[in-house]
Every structure is written in structure tokens, then in C-alpha cells.
Specification:
Elongation Factor Tu (Ef-tu), domain 3; MnmG_N; flavin adenine dinucleotide binding; 13 helices; about 15% strand; alpha+beta; globular; six-stranded mixed sheet
């Protein structure tokens, strides 16, 4: 029996899957179509390239579900988290990374592993034999998407993912903007000043909303429908839901004090987060958009402090295809109709870099175990990874299935704890304590062999 594992897609999920399987002693071939076949969003041929935000979100492993997922991936020797930690940028309580060095480091580590090889070229069909993981992400190529749709007997679901713009720091007016993390969160001064803030008064905010609503937007192709993921809504879509929506979302003014006008409370605040280690680039937090490029520059320059801003990248929008996983995948992430094929990452219906990498970690371990003839117990449902994989492979309602971030709503309740907001802190700590114990026990049953290739 061929002991080679083929992985299609070198994003977060594919890279992590390859790393885990290779460390278990399986030969791995990563099939990555870039740079031979490009996409609208990618700029390089590097593995694990970050195309949207540069944030892995909260790193709090006691009170936040995504922070717990960070902890579990670190505990499992995850490559994505190791490289994220190595290329970390100040971001308050969040884990943000210097995206280009991060991707290059992931690429270098995988290419240097004796069990891993990388082949450039597009895979357009589902193979009949061999062990495969498809981790093609939100930009699955048209031909492969058609092949998947034919095999599953259903039309792939789709929503539209939006990209936030990036501004050159030296074009921001710091006489109007200031550096501060919300509520001064962070253990160091660098963390407490990780965000750049641009304040708006009521009139400026109302004028901004008017311009946002009136701006020319990207039109969808005939037959496409915009099913946005709520965690990544374009700002103009949020504005259409109500004029105050942005002020209670990415533009909320709470936890901030303007040192230029300490006695004046801002009506709204636009935040920017460092996007590279040099501090020369900042992305506008939560400002994913489908405005056309000309409209973006004029609307965003209405933001105080950004009147003369130069943009390293404007926002964009792209289609994100995902499977109806509760119907199509088994508990081992295998395609029910073709058990030699697994899916991992965003195409399975998880949302976010961390969730994608986590599902890659599980897929890589499960596929390698199968190739090696090892019995591996199911990931514990009380862990963050177990809760997430349980949701996408059967816990979710198939008729209404939509992409999901990890969250404590996916966890089984802990008996005897108070509900509601007042009991939340104790409840979340109980979830994370239970998850860490369950995950540690599972890893002890499924150790990495670090063996030579078979």
C-alpha cells in the first residue's frame, strides 16, 4: 500500500496537515497551484500566505474560545502557531503576525522537512485512489469546484469574503490620531499602544455613513448571491442594517481616550492595527469592503487622520466556497462517497485562519494514522478542536449550515454553573480547564512519532 499522503492546497490548513503527517512519519506531497495558477487575493507562491487580516484574534486561553484553540494547537506542536509566535506583532490581547515573514518561515520549514515535497500545479479532479486531503480554501479553483459539485451531487454553497485596506503609516496625520489599545489592554507598553485610533464627532460620522451608503459598489455576476459570513461583513452592508451599526461594531468608541482632546468623548473611532514588523503598514480593523477602488479612496479619506493617506492595498471581495459538511463528511472528515478523500480548512465550513489550521491539524493526524494502520480515538468533544469538528461533521443543522468560528456556544454545558452574563467568566474558565484536560489526554493517546518516512 502506498504510504504517501497527498494534500491539495498550501494554505493554513494544508500546511498544518502536512506538518503533522510528516512528523508522524508519512511521506507528504503538497500540491499547490500558485504561483503557476494565481488568484485574485494572493500575491506570492508562499505557503500559508495571509490574504485578509494579519490577526489570529484573541490569545486568551482562559476566557476566549479562539485563544483556547491557540493553546491546543501549541500543545500539539502546530507549525502555524509556532511560526505565528515567532513573527508576532503588538496587538493588545490579540495575536497578530508579520504576514510575509510568517509565510516564508512556514514555507521554509515545510520544504526543509525530509518527509515533505511540494509540487506546483493545479489539481482539477477528485482522484480515485490514494490518500488525499483537499484544503483548497475559500478560493477553490473553478475546475476543482465543479468536480467536487459533480461528486457530491449538490451545488457548492458560497458566500463572499471581503478584504480590509492597508495604509502606509507615514501618511497618517498623528496630530489627529493616537496610539492606544482599547481599555489599555496588554502587559507591555507596546501592547497597550498597539492600535492607531482615528476619532469622529457626530457630524463626521453621519457624513461618513452617507458617503458609505452612496458609494459605488462591486456588482456580483449573474446567478451569484451574496451570502456574507457575519464575522466578515463589508462595512457598507453593516451600514445598510442601520446607521448606528458601525458605531456599535468596528467603530465603537469605548475604552479609548484621545490625548489630543482628553475631555472630548469621540462619537465613533476607526482603529488601525500594525500589519508588519517595521510598523510601516497598518490595516483598517473591521473595514472589509466591496466598494470600488475609486470610491474607497474618497470615502476612507473622510476619516480624520487619513485625509492624505496612501494605500498599500485597497479592499476587495471574493467568493468563498464551502461544503455542506454535516451531510457530506464523516466524523473523520472523509467524504462519505469517497473515503480516501478528506477535506480540511475553510472549505469544510469553518471560518478564520486559526480554525482552518486547526482542522488541517486534525485531518493530517487522522489521515496519517489511517495510512500507518493506527487506531486513533475521536477528538474529545469537550476540547475546542473536538467541539468544532463535531459541529461541522454532524452537530450543525444541515439545512441552515453556514461557516462558523469557534465559540463557546459549540461546547457542552458544565453542570452547576450560573448562566447569563454574570456567570460568564466562571463558565468560560470551566470550559477552558475541561478542554485543556481533555485535549492533553487525547494527545497522550496519539503522540507524534517523529519517525523516518515509511
Amino acid at each position: 500500500m502506498d504510504k504517501t499522503l497527498h494534500i491539495v492546497g498550501g494554505g493554513m490548513a494544508g500546511s498544518e496537515a502536512a506538518w503533522q503527517a510528516a512528523r508522524m512519519g508519512v511521506n507528504v506531497v503538497i500540491h499547490e497551484m500558485r504561483p503557476q495558477v494565481g488568484t485574485f487575493a494572493h500575491r506570492t507562491g508562499d505557503l500559508a500566505e495571509m490574504v485578509c487580516s494579519n490577526s489570529f484574534r484573541s490569545d486568551d486561553d482562559e476566557q476566549n474560545a479562539v485563544g483556547l484553540l491557540h493553546w491546543e494547537m501549541r500543545k500539539a506542536g502546530g507549525l502555524i502557531m509556532e511560526m505565528a509566535d515567532a513573527h508576532r506583532l503588538p496587538a493588545g490581547g490579540a495575536l497578530a503576525v508579520d504576514r510575509d515573514p510568517f509565510a516564508r518561515a512556514v514555507t521554509d520549514r515545510l520544504r526543509a522537512h525530509p518527509n515533505v515535497s511540494v509540487e506546483t500545479g493545479e489539481i482539477t479532479d477528485l482522484p480515485d485512489d490514494g490518500q488525499w486531503i483537499f484544503a483548497t480554501g475559500p478560493l477553490t479553483s473553478e475546475k476543482l469546484g465543479q468536480s467536487i459539485a459533480r461528486e457530491t451531487g449538490s451545488t457548492a454553497l458560497a458566500f463572499f469574503d471581503a478584504i480590509a485596506p492597508i495604509v502606509y503609516f507615514d501618511t497618517i496625520d498623528m496630530d489627529k490620531a493616537w496610539m492606544q489599545s482599547r481599555y489599555d489592554k496588554g502587559d507591555t507598553e507596546e501592547e497597550r499602544t498597539a492600535y492607531l485610533n482615528c476619532p469622529m464627532d457626530r457630524d463626521q460620522y453621519e457624513a461618513f455613513i452617507d458617503a458609505l451608503l452612496a458609494a459605488e459598489k462591486t456588482e456580483f455576476h449573474e446567478g451569484e448571491t451574496a451570502q456574507y459570513f457575519d464575522g466578515c461583513l463589508p462595512i457598507e452592508v453593516m451600514a445598510e442594517r442601520g446607521r448606528e451599526t458601525l458605531r456599535h461594531g468596528p467603530m465603537k468608541p469605548v475604552g479609548l481616550t484621545n490625548p489630543h482632546q482628553p475631555d472630548v468623548k469621540a462619537h465613533a473611532v476607526v482603529q488601525l492595527r500594525r500589519d508588519n514588523a517595521l510598523g510601516t503598514l497598518y490595516n483598517i480593523v473591521g473595514f472589509q469592503t466591496k466598494m470600488k477602488y475609486g470610491a474607497q479612496t474618497s470615502v476612507f479619506k473622510m476619516i480624520p487622520g487619513l485625509e492624505n493617506a496612501a494605500f498599500a492595498r485597497l479592499g476587495g471581495i471574493h467568493r468563498n466556497t464551502f461544503l455542506n459538511s454535516p451531510t457530506l463528511l464523516d466524523a473523520q472528515m472523509r467524504l462519505r462517497a469517497r473515503p480516501n478523500i478528506r477535506f480540511a480548512g475553510q472549505i469544510t465550513g469553518v471560518e478564520g485562519y486559526v480554525e482552518s489550521a486547526a482542522m488541517g491539524l486534525l485531518a493530517g493526524r487522522l489521515a496519517a494514522a489511517e495510512l500507518l494502520g493506527k487506531d486513533v480515538p475521536a477528538p474529545p468533544q469537550d476540547s475546542a478542536m473536538g467541539a468544532l469538528i463535531h459541529h461541522i461533521t454532524g452537530g450543525a443543522e444541515a439545512k441552515t449550515f453556514q461557516p462558523m468560528n469557534v465559540n463557546f456556544g459549540l461546547f457542552r454545558p458544565v453542570d452547576g454553573l450560573k448562566g447569563g452574563r454574570r456567570g460568564r467568566r466562571d463558565r468560560y474558565k470551566a470550559y477552558t480547564d475541561r478542554a485543556k484536560a481533555a485535549w492533553s489526554d487525547w494527545l497522550a493517546q496519539c503522540p507524534l512519532d517523529e519517525s523516518e518516512p515509511v
